Amino acid sequence: MIDRENHDFPFYDRPDLTPFLVHLTKNSEDENGRSAYKNLVNILQTGKILGSGTKKGFIKGPNRAACFMDIPFAALKHVLNEENADPENPRYEPYGVVVTKKNAYRKGCRPVLYLSNAELERIEIPEQELWRVVRLEGVEERDVNWLHEREWRAKTDFKLPPNAFAALVSSPAEARKLTRHIQRYTDKFQVKPASIIPLKVLCQGLPYA
């Protein structure tokens, strides 16, 4: 029985809400030869998610930002769809880390502001705060619209807690592989996730991954 008086925001009562934020990786083979899996390993070893800039992450203004999605686990298979998981030019791949919203909020992570370019100019948001803004130019398929990602951002880099809630990998075989790797080289990992979750199980298959 949930103690309603002391119950947190109703994540347990609403299938569209989640107490977690997800950061998915993709390969950067054109830059440093790393696969999406190796980028996940690097995040766990360094203990931080490096902020994206204007060129790679479409972040406005002079500041970089680390990006997350506010999406229930069951909906991740819709993010890892045919378009986003195109092997020639993937936006995301089925690898990443999960943190609690409580931890992220304490570290300055916030939901982005979805604004059109005209609104952005009219409101006159200071240049140093433009990292918070994602462009929104309509709600139809042909429009510039990323509302489905329900994005949160943290300014510059994001330091992960040592026992981050979870790491996400594609398959059970990779979950075993990452577990063995962390156990064998434990001193090299700043972050040892509390769980390693294969998305092919969690999402009941990933047809496009």
Characterise this structure.
The protein is built from seven helices and eleven strands. It has helices spanning 36-46, 54-57, 76-79, 101-106, 117-123, 172-184, 199-202, and strands spanning 20-24, 48-49, 65-69, 96-100, 110-111, 113-115, 133-135, 151-155, 158-159, 166-169, 196-198. It has a four-stranded mixed sheet. A three-stranded antiparallel sheet has the order 3-8-5, with no helix packed on it. A two-stranded antiparallel ribbon has the order 2-9. The N and C termini lie far apart (39 Å).
Task: Give the tags.
209 residues; alpha+beta; three-stranded antiparallel beta sheet; 7 helices; 11 strands
**Number of helical stretches of at least 4 residues:** 7
Largest β-sheet summary: 4 strands, mixed
Order of helices and strands: EHEHEHEHEEHEEEEHEH
Structure class: alpha+beta
User: CA-to-CA gap between the ends?
Assistant: 39 Å
**Helix residue percentage:** 10-25%
